Amino acid sequence: MKEDEIIINTIRFLSVDQVERAKSGHPGMPLGAAHVGYIIFDRFLKFNPKNPRWINRDRFVLSAGHASALLYSLLFLNGYDISIEELKRFRQLDSITPGHPENILTPGVEVTSGPLGQGFGNSVGMAIAERYLSSYFNREGFNVIDHYTYVLASDGDLMEGISSEAAALAGHFKLNKLIVIWDNNKVTIDGPTSLAWSENVLERFHALGWYVQDIEDGYNLSKIEDAVRNAREQKDKPSFIAVRTHIAYGSRLQDDSRAHGAPLGKEVVEEMKKKFNWPLEEFYIPEEAWRYREEKIKNGV
């Protein structure tokens, strides 16, 4: 396997194993969107795991806070001060890996999220702050403040009214350093999104003044990377990237709402690990992933 594939699968199975160990959680989105988080962290995010509050870091906001296992796996592999033991204590009392992310508790967590749409609204505020601080502090040749805010949002986030209100403000202010990626898996905890939602989301964001891209081939890493590069080149619009994904990708519960908010079960997980040629051992981390983590720590920013 190539390194990209190894790291993405490590993220997937660390996330699934967290949920299985806790006997509760949300495995579907981590399986479906692990590659999106990986591309953002690996190709674009400017951060220092040794200094999580560095003022000019890029911000990564998991608006879909129910997919917290995905965020903890990403932070662990990118060198933040989260141990494998803390991953094993997912959703347990006094752990730093709670069921929904808390920014006062876990290194690297930018926003306390969980109520759908909240992280989206927070991210617009962060982008406004970046705009204000850069105008106040920056001088020609000295960009003290110059960072992006990346958001991973779910169907549920975009169904909430706060996302429309915040998106309207972002479009009005032309917040070009705000990039929202939509995990478009078309499934909610109740079933398919078509049960209650038929809005043309892309047209909504067009109307609100965003630069919009749509990736139907949602597991093509190059297309996601190219879309983010295009977004970073925008000068007067925030960016919205729709990525067609599949909840519980690779498992027998793919595209099934049962995978949204409950463990997959030992049999399903073992079957999936065999399908991906992955060891059955819980919390298995290949040598390539350990080296990847050490490089992130060593390199800093």
Features:
single chain; Rossmann fold; two-stranded antiparallel ribbon
How would you summarize what this structure contains?
This protein is an alpha/beta fold and 301 residues long. The protein has helices at 3-22, 28-44, 68-77, 84-88, 118-137, 155-159, 161-173, 201-207, 221-232, 266-275, 287-299; strands at 59-62, 149-154, 178-184, 187-188, 191-192, 211-215, 239-244. The chain has one domain (3-299): Thiamin diphosphate (ThDP)-binding fold, Pyr/PP domains (Rossmann fold, 3-Layer(aba) Sandwich), CATH 3.40.50.
What does this structure look like?
The structure is a single chain. The protein is an alpha/beta fold. It has one domain (3-299): Rossmann fold (3-Layer(aba) Sandwich), CATH 3.40.50. The chain is built from 11 helices and 7 strands. Strands 1-2-3-7-6 form a 5-stranded parallel beta sheet, sandwiched between helices. Strands 4-5 form a two-stranded antiparallel ribbon. β6, α9 and β7 (239-244) form a beta-alpha-beta unit. The model has no long low-confidence stretch (mean pLDDT 98).
